[in-house]
Specification:
The complex is a heterodimer. By secondary structure, chain A is α/β, with parallel strands linked by helices. Chain A contains 11 helices and 12 strands. In chain A, the strands form 2 sheets. Chain A has an 8-stranded mixed beta sheet, with helices on both faces. Chain B is α/β, with parallel strands linked by helices. Chain B has 11 helices and 12 strands. In chain B, a hairpin with a 2-residue loop joins strand 11 and strand 12. In chain B, helix 4 crosses helix 5 and helix 4 runs parallel beside helix 6. Chain B is globular. In chain B, 44% of the residues are buried. Classes of the chains: A alpha/beta, B alpha/beta. The interface between A and B is large, with 44 and 47 residues.
Chain lengths: 326, 333
């Protein structure tokens, strides 16, 4: 699978969490390939493992988590095999991350200027003038008058402005990969659309790849070139966003799309996915979706389906993928 | 026909204080809002954070006292009611909030939570209480065995069902839904929306559905009001508003909705709205002026009221100032 067009490859990742109730199998054979200069969406419901996938890429999983299998290759270099010192040079510099709530990822007692300078000086970015680089970065994230906000504190700015500052900080070392974990969930729709448009502009201007994590299918449709759908710790479908959303091959993807109230007639019943999300402490055997799947057969409960090509550029982990036409 | 709920020129101002006593200004959280909801219908209310949706909801529930205006439930102004009459009126309006974990007491079991309103209002003899609770739980799709569970033992969707059962326990005429599905996943949201639809069909109650999610409102509501900075800027039957959005703010909101079929390149947000809002709204003019892509000179000095765009459909924009204006009466069903 790995080719020159891939920037980052997550291979066969398996992550366990120790909890009071038992061992939680958070990620199971996660496979993800991020291409150069693309915006890849990672979509799934609460607890499907989106965020821990992102954190695993940076080897930032919580204390009780353990990666037992798999590799994360950044241009062939396995990030999981690096020591802390090496990782410090990669985090923020080559791979950076933006989180959901900007007010908690910015330091409330420092000005915007000092927080932005911090990032540049701690990674010893070679710039002639730190101040002018800060201003350039703020312009890049859409501030038309950056000097006005340099001496502000985070609480003086709106949520959308704070998120743009967080983006500017993440971009300051010109990363090859930007991970955006639910970057618009705490924002209003208009601000959300602005941030998504900004992500696209950043990609076009810098050529960086972006991994956009969201539970919102609409956000993914708006911004992403390709999408990976997660369910209960595994990737169940990957493909170009337009193709996957128009013609989902996995029955979970199909169920999710149908559950959206977008097309439904007022008063008509929304089609729901039968059952609820399984416990990952004692996950279903075989395909983790099989107890909820209307097309499940005997093999689905016995063997875990592999992520395999089903249509051009579209992969699905299912023994009975849905047909091409709807 | 009496409207189920009538909100007439409702206003709620909060004092902005510096220090303890010095009043430095007012925040007009709700600023002259009027609308009405006919029985058995769903009225959707949309707007961004801070536009006054929740303050409006709190006034309707009489959790806070408004600065001015009236709220009539079945023709009776709830702000003049006292004592027993008020208690009875409160039975008719119940609420469901966004985060069920925060609106349910963590130390009470599901059964106790559902029983509390029944006890407070003495509507049912103790001997029949248990049967009533189980009946309510069945209505919202919960099992009898879940009655002894605490909120932290239930999932978000199940907790929201408990909140719905509690709201239904007194057979209200109107349920106020403040972002009831915003904290839920898509598949759970669909289940809750289906449940709410079914309850309305069976018991004929009205909903006031507050949400920032316009695609949910399009699916769910009969009437729609769009709020901006404490005002209703557009009002009408929801299919008409979606077909012919007339206020520039409504158009902006609709263009910003993530739509599965539209990529952002084809629906690039209007540039003027993208710019940082640095100017504050003009003193006597339209509050949307600083962000408006089609603003005119007169918008700076004239504050628009709701003008009729077409029958039953109104927008507070001077683009329509040659049309008749609407004074304190909302569209009839």
């Amino acid at each position: 699978m790995t080719g020159p067009q891939e920037l980052l490859d997550v291979l066969n990742l398996k992550l366990l969490f120790r909890t009071v109730e038992g061992t939680l199998q958070a990620l199971e054979n996660v496979e993800l390939h991020i291409r150069r200069g693309e915006i890849l969406g990672l979509v799934g419901e609460t607890g499907s493992g989106k965020s821990v996938t992102a954190l695993s890429i940076l080897k930032m999983i919580p204390e009780n988590g353990r990666i037992v299998e798999g590799k994360v290759l950044l241009q062939g270099q396995d990030l999981l095999a690096q020591n802390e010192e090496e990782l410090r040079k990669i985090r923020g510099a080559r791979v950076s991350i933006v989180f959901q709530d900007p007010s908690s990822s910015l330091n409330p007692v420092y000005t915007i200027r000092s927080q932005m300078r911090d990032m540049l000086t701690s990674h010893q970015v070679e710039v002639a003038d730190v101040e002018s680089r800060v201003i350039e970065l703020l312009r890049q994230v859409g501030f038309q008058n950056p000097t006005r906000i340099l001496d502000s504190y985070p609480h003086e700015l709106s949520g959308g402005m704070q998120q743009r500052i967080a983006l500017a900080i993440a971009l300051s070392c010109s990363p090859e990969l930007l991970i955006a974990d639910e970057p618009t969930t705490a924002l209003d729709v208009v601000t959300q659309a602005q941030i998504l448009a900004l992500l696209k502009r950043i990609r076009d201007a810098t050529g960086a790849s972006i991994l956009l994590i969201s539970h919102n299918l609409g956000v993914i449709a708006m911004a992403c070139d390709r999408v990976a759908v997660m369910y209960a710790g595994s990737i169940v479908e990957v493909g170009p966003t337009v193709k996957v959303f128009r013609n989902p091959a996995h029955h979970y993807t199909r169920g999710l799309l149908n559950a959206l109230p977008r097309m439904a007639q007022k008063g008509s019943e929304l089609p729901v996915i039968y059952g609820s999300i399984p416990s990952l402490i004692n996950p279903p055997s075989g395909c983790r979706f099989h107890p909820r799947c209307p097309f499940a057969t005997e093999i689905c409960s016995r063997e875990r389906p592999k992520l395999e090509p089903c249509r051009p550029d579209q992969l699905v982990a299912c023994y009975h993928p849905a047909g091409e036409s709807q | 026909m009496t409207e189920l709920l009538e909100v007439i020129n409702l206003t709620k101002h909060f004092a902005l204080r510096s220090g303890v006593f010095r009043r430095v200004g007012t925040v007009k959280a709700v600023d002259g809002v009027s609308f009405s909801i006919p029985p058995k219908k769903t009225f959707g209310l949309a707007g961004e954070t801070g536009c006054g949706k929740t303050t409006l909801a709190k006034c309707i529930l009489r959790i806070i006292q408004p600065t001015g205006g009236e709220v009539k439930v079945e023709g009776k102004n709830i702000f003049t009611l006292r004592g027993k009459e008020l208690k009875n009126a409160r039975r008719n309006v119940q609420a469901i909030f966004q985060n069920p974990l925060m609106s349910l007491d963590p130390r009470m079991t599901a059964a106790n939570i559902i029983a509390e309103p029944l006890k407070t209002h003495h509507v049912i003899p103790k001997s029949k209480m248990y049967d009533k609770i189980i009946e309510l739980m069945r209505t919202v799709g919960l099992d009898e065995e879940q009655s002894l569970k605490y909120p932290h033992e239930l999932s978000g969707g199940q907790n929201q069902r408990v909140a719905i059962a509690r709201a239904l326990s007194l057979n209200p005429k109107l349920i106020l839904l403040d972002e009831p599905t915003s904290s839920l996943d898509v598949s759970v949201q669909a289940q809750i929306l289906n449940l709410l639809t079914e309850i309305q069909r069976k018991s004929g109650l009205g909903y006031l559905f507050i949400s920032h999610d316009l695609s949910v409102l399009r699916y769910f509501s009969d009437f729609l009001a769009i709020m901006y900075l404490g005002r209703i800027v557009e009002l009408g039957p929801s299919d008409i508003v979606f077909k012919n959005p007339s206020h520039p703010y409504t158009q902006l909101l609709l263009s910003a909705i993530p739509d599965l079929s539209v990529s952002i390149t084809s629906s690039e947000i209007k540039v003027s709205a993208l710019a940082e809002v640095l100017e504050s709204p003009p003193e006597n003019g339209c509050k949307f002026y600083p962000r408006c892509p089609v603003r005119m000179e007169k918008c700076k000095t004239t504050d628009p009221t709701l003008f009729q765009v077409e029958s039953g459909h109104h927008a507070a924009c001077l683009l329509f100032d040659n049309r008749p204006s609407l004074f304190y009466s909302a569209p009839k069903a």
